Amino acid sequence: MSQRVKLITDSASDLPEEFCEKYNIQIVPLTVVFGEKEYKDKVSLSPEEFWDKLITSSELPSTNQVNPHEFEEAFRPHLDAGSTILYIGLSHRLSGTLQSAAIAKETLRSQRIHIFDSHSASLGQGLLVIKAAEMIEQGLSLPEILTELESHRENSFALFTLDSLTHLVRGGRLSRTQAFLGSVLNIKPVLTITKEGTIEVKEKVRSTKKALQTIAARAKEQRNDFSHTQVAVVHTYGAESVNELLDLVRTELEPKEIIQGLIGPTIGTHAGPGGVALFF
């Protein structure tokens, strides 16, 4: 390519460190707040430390989006070095972080900053970042990369189930009406991240086991052949069902690769413990 492309994402992507190192991906951290104390996701608060705090703290945490100045500081060195920047961010329907990146782009007045809305979160967002990294390494042009990312986003899949919907409601990511359905009659909601990047209840089942089977079944309905598909199975603290979901994915889908991960502070704040998700 005529210009180097610097790939940047935010901490909501839950991108495993091995991919950050392999592809030199920069992570811009969101802020997690416990009481009066603020932490930078995976900078001053590791996923393990976060979950320990969440379980033992008397108050629930909250998150703050990345502000425009922080994006300016992240972008400027790469512009000065002559690179083109591709930032793949958390769904704008779930956070103002993407808007902050757009403001930073306007402030820096650079046409070499390209902002892509993942319309997703956690490793749904992370899989797009990995896809972009692979294409950059292959030498594809930025327009080609963006076209492929749009196609991948349009055909993406995201289903998950949580022990409790309290955290999603408290953070404003799910309505109280939708959450109420999960608290009566022992209903276990299967949730989705929609094509527009919002969180909604997709189906209502009666048990965790049925929720996991539903996730695998709906995934299988999407395509016949997963042998060329990279999927991600992620979980929050205390999700004993993650191994069951992994077994279902391996036997029912037989994907090319399963990327696994522990959900970090940004998404964990809104998901809470006991959650599992499948993305591709």
Structural class: alpha/beta
Instruction: Compute the average pLDDT.
Output: 93
Shape: globular
Overall number of structural domains:
2
Kindly state the number of beta strands.
13
Name the helix and strand elements from N-terminus to C-terminus, one letter apiece: EHEEEHEHEHEHHEHHEEHEHEHE
If you consult CATH, what is the topology of the largest domain?
A: Hypothetical Protein Tm841, Chain: A,domain 3
* Spans where pLDDT lies below 50 across 5 or more residues: none
Our count of helices gives 11
Beta-strand residue percentage: 15-25%
Percentage of residues assigned to helices? 40-55%
Q: Whole-number radius of gyration?
A: 18 Å
Distance between the termini: 28 Å
The CATH class designation of the largest domain is Alpha Beta
Proper CATH architecture of the largest domain = 2-Layer Sandwich
Strand order of the largest sheet: 10-9-8-13-11-12
Biggest beta sheet summary: 6 strands, mixed
Can you tell me about this structure?
The protein contains eleven helices and 13 strands. It has 280 residues and is of the alpha/beta class. It folds into two domains: 116 residues, Dihydroxyacetone kinase, domain 1 (Rossmann fold), CATH 3.40.50; 122 residues, Hypothetical Protein Tm841, Chain: A,domain 3 (2-Layer Sandwich). It has a six-stranded mixed β-sheet with strand order 10-9-8-13-11-12, sandwiched between helices. A four-stranded parallel β-sheet has the order 2-1-6-7, with helices on both faces. It starts with a strand and ends with a strand.
